[in-house]
Design brief:
heterodimer; A: globular; B: about 190 residues; alpha+beta; 2 domains; 4-stranded antiparallel β-sheet; 5 helices
Chain lengths: ~400, ~190
């Protein structure tokens, strides 16, 4: 039967890991970004390519943090018990949001390289862009982006701070407050995520529009987040943290969630494709036409199989979800596919027909990724890796999949 | 409480009632889990545990093998997808060629929604019917309900029953074995 776990004996702090991770990730982050910038200035690919590589990776890591914020709110909204022992990791993964907000400044600086609707010369010749001016203009773009980030940061801060405060006080009212905020928070989240996805990614091709685009970005981000969560838990346990508190039952559920959202992503991706393919309206289909040309046709198939079929089959069996290593390997695979998905959204506009990978994609990944990891570690450094006095902790500790 | 005869190992008594098996009662899920492990280790195969609510760890304690249902559902899902594909391919591209908005006769994207729906339909119906059939339902009569005390299985008591048709079943030895499990005195259940 269930034996009570001695929390006092459980290593549940980062301790010596934190300074090491901070130095490595932070150092790599700065070096990566500087290297990418130098490449942008010095190589012939230029700043145009730099900004696109930067946007891909910014949107990638942003989607992971937003997935984490969604997960935290969802747990409070549904009053979930099973997930308490892994919730602190998710709260930690929302911590990079302020850093990501600052990293948006280069996007604003390079807006003319990224968004053709910011170039007044182009807009003057384009009737459609003129009609879209009331929405697609630089001032309103900055206001929207700032508003989205402000809302996300407030929500992330609220849930992190209250959860951490509960570690000290054990006050049940904090849980009640978080539950109360999670509902309206979810509504705000849905609206702001849609606005940000449309602004940052969809407006790269300002003639094109897809009403499902926000959900598409959300679906990919949530798949990526669940994979990252499983991977973080796996790495934490590999380095001796929380060996008894997090069990195979929690992996099983994270596996189920990756599986479910892989299917959800495929459903949304196909819904977007089918309607545009069927209606066959030139200004809509051209977006997919770019993604069927040359290398991009192959990449679309790689996404179909790699982002859906492979993880679907890899996680369909109960046994695969109940083996830590197989969940972790699938998580790494899914995270790579999610990156390719964002790349696939951005790059066909820059290099038509060619995959056009650049070293800058890697350096930007290391740069933003390093800072992402560093800010998450920084936030978790001082705290327990589980919400130690959450009223539903016992439920999570003794949780079993029937 | 009837004092059943232990001298006769015959499976049919004087009034023609057949021995269905034995029933032991436990007061706590912990006692049940301990007993279930012993019954499992003794090598019985036709036996069951009965509880008022799901008891974690009981599957392992009973040594139950995983259900075959997932494979049936997976097979049914594949069948559904193929049915959708063949049905639409055959009707639109061969049997009655019909050109829709300039698309090819055989056009996979257009077929996917129906393939998807049939996958879900076949898989869901198989999961539903398969669960019922694999559980041996519907079953209109069960010998265990002949015992009055078994009614508390829906309230606050835990039971283990061993059927007489178990290859290891022996009227006297099984009774003695069940009596050693720490529950109530084993009761005979008649069919």
């Amino acid at each position: 039967m269930e034996r009570p776990i001695d929390l006092a004996a459980e290593p549940r702090r980062l301790e010596t890991l934190a300074p090491r991770a901070l130095r490595t990730a932070g150092g790599l982050g700065v070096v990566g970004l500087v290297a990418a910038l130098i490449q942008g200035i010095l190589t012939e690919e230029g700043m145009h390519r730099f900004y696109h590589a930067y946007l891909v990776n910014l949107c990638y890591f942003l989607s992971l943090s937003l997935g984490a914020l969604f997960f935290v709110m969802l747990q409070h909204l549904t009053r979930a018990g099973w997930s308490v022992v892994i919730r602190r990791f998710a709260e930690g993964l929302t911590a990079p949001l302020p850093m990501l907000a600052v990293l948006c400044i280069p996007i604003l600086v390079g807006r003319h390289e990224l968004y053709s609707w910011t170039r007044s010369g182009l807009v003057a010749e384009d009737h459609l862009l003129q009609l879209k001016q009331p929405y697609l203009n630089t001032t309103f773009f900055i206001i929207r982006l700032a508003a989205c980030f402000a809302i996300w940061m407030l929500l992330a801060r609220f849930f992190f701070a209250n959860s951490v405060r509960q570690d000290m006080t054990g006050d049940v009212n904090l849980t009640l407050r978080m539950q109360a905020i999670s509902g309206p928070g979810m509504v705000l989240f849905a609206i702001t995520l849609t606005v940000a996805a449309v602004d940052l990614l969809m407006s790269l091709d300002p003639h094109w529009y897809s009403t499902i685009f926000g959900v598409y970005y959300y679906a990919g981000g949530v798949v990526g987040f669940f994979a990252l969560l499983a991977l973080v838990v796996f790495l934490a346990q590999s380095s001796g943290r929380l060996p008894r508190v997090i069990t195979i039952e929690h992996y099983h559920d994270m596996g189920k969630l990756i599986f479910a959202f892989v299917v959800f992503w495929a459903y949304i991706a196909f819904s977007q494709y089918l309607l545009i393919w069927y209606a066959n309206i030139p200004e809509e289909t051209v977006w997919f036409l770019h993604r069927q040309d040359g290398d991009w046709g192959v990449m679309s198939l790689v996404l179909l199989f790699g982002h859906f079929v492979v993880p679907f089959l890899a996680l369909i069996s109960r046994r695969a979800k109940r083996r830590k290593a197989s969940v972790a390997v699938t998580a790494v695979w899914v995270l790579s596919m999610h990156w390719l998905d964002i790349y696939w959204l951005v790059m066909p506009g820059v290099s038509e027909g060619h995959l056009g990978l650049s070293l800058m994609d890697l350096t930007c990944f290391i740069g933003i990724g390093g800072l992402f990891v560093a800010t998450a570690v920084l936030a978790l450094r001082e705290h327990s890796l589980i919400p130690a006095r959450d009223p539903r902790l016992i439920e999570s500790l003794t949780f079993e999949n029937v | 409480m009837s004092q059943a005869s232990t001298t006769s190992p015959a499976k049919t008594d004087a009034e023609g009632r057949r021995l269905w098996g034995y029933l032991v009662e436990f007061e706590t899920p912990e006692a049940l889990l301990d007993a279930a492990e012993k019954v499992r280790d003794a090598g019985y195969t036709r036996w069951d545990a009965h509880t008022p609510f799901p008891v974690h760890g009981l599957n392992d304690a009973m040594g139950l093998r995983p259900t075959k249902l997932p494979w049936l559902v997976f097979g049914a899902g594949l069948t559904g997808a193929l049915t959708g594909l063949v049905l639409q391919g055959y009707t639109n591209a061969f049997d009655y060629k019909f050109l829709i908005s300039g698309k090819p006769y055989f056009s996979l994207p257009a077929n996917i929604p129906v393939m998807f729906e049939l996958t879900i339909l076949f898989a869901a119906l198989t999961a539903f019917a398969g669960m019922i059939v694999l559980n041996g339902l519907p079953e209109w009569y069960h010998a265990l309900f002949n015992r009055r005390r078994f009614r508390r299985v829906t309230a606050d008591r835990f039971f283990i029953s061993v059927e007489a048709r178990d290859p290891k079943f022996h009227a006297r030895q099984t009774r003695a074995f069940l009596a050693s499990l720490g529950g109530s005195t084993p009761e005979e259940v008649e069919d």
